Amino acid sequence: MKPQTIDDISSAARVSRHPFPAWMLRRRRLERLAELLEAAPTPARLFVTMECYPRRDRLMLRQEGSPLFVAFADPLFRREGLTGDSVADGVAFFGLSLREAHALLCDCGYGGVMRMGAPLNGLIAARARRLASKRTFAEWRDRIVAWI
Known about the structure:
With 148 residues, this protein is an all-alpha fold. The chain is built from ten helices and no strands. It has helices spanning 6-10, 22-39, 55-60, 67-72, 75-80, 87-94, 98-105, 113-116, 121-133, 137-147. The longest helix has 18 residues, at 22-39. It has one domain. The chain is 57% helix and 0% strand. Helix 2 (22-39) runs antiparallel to helix 9 and helix 7 (98-105) runs antiparallel to helix 9.
């Protein structure tokens, strides 16, 4: 049997690079993000009043030290297709809605903790895990179809 690359096989068959459904991939990526945030040596920085920007500008937001910056520094995420550290890149890669991205990345959702100087990494990681455990419509659909 001759060894072949994925590109060689792709011409003869439909090849999926991710053997998991999108909701499972989202869950795994958010869990990894939480682990990276907890292991980060520096405190994460959140976006300030993210909701005040128009949608187009909000998607282009990026900030050094943000959770998306931490994610983009991870070689595994870059290999899987994370192309940058902007909100748009994070929304697409992690499968987040803009509302979920706002809840995870904006300072307004963390109360006064930011002003008191407490490290936010653990809080952001916990919120990422809550988003990971949230069942999406696609997951419910897959479970119902498997049950039927």
